[in-house]
Amino acid sequence: MLIPAIDLKDGAVVQLVQGERLAIRDEDVDKWVARFARFPKVQVIDLDAAMGTGDNLAIVRRIAGQLSCRVGGGIRTVERARDILAAGAEQVIAGSSLFKNGQPDLVFARQLADAVTPDRVIAAVDSKGGRVVVHGWKTTLPITAVEAVHALEPFCSEFLYTHVDLEGLMQGTDIDAILDVRRATSRRVTAAGGITTQQEIDTLDAYHVDAVAGMAVYTGMLKID
Question: 145, 163, 154, 155: which is closest to 204 by C-alpha?
């Protein structure tokens, strides 16, 4: 299944290359909300909240009330998770907050799961150079994605695995790395990072992996109409 992405920064929909260089900016958020309305799942990420440079909470709440979406970015507290879910989001995506001192933070993971139930928690595990990265992909941890997945599995219903090495480059993704994560857990897996073609989406779907696409959708390389 294709899950289109809405990444928000400074009140606009954006696409970044490798999480840094701005490639696309569109202030017409509602245009993309309307365009993605037919999809059963949409991924919404508040990049400002994720990077600790502000937030787009009002826009996130508005989108959550209109689309069937999962929302991430700045989910660092139980209160924030409850706020997003109360606005209408189906699930929250927690990433950096699930790691502490270089390892999975099982205390916070359990608190979050207990507060909103594991069914509504997606654990984001981002990998670069074979290791988990957090804090906007700037901090590398001494663990692999598979090790993180094993530890966090009891506290979520799904994993979002992003292969950062290829994020935004539109050169294709790393199917083998994604399947390593798929084999490591009984939970649902959604993959992101460089997914560019329908063939990749179909290949992942055959392994029961959903695919998040951003840059390929916004540039028109991946046709969704």
Answer: 163
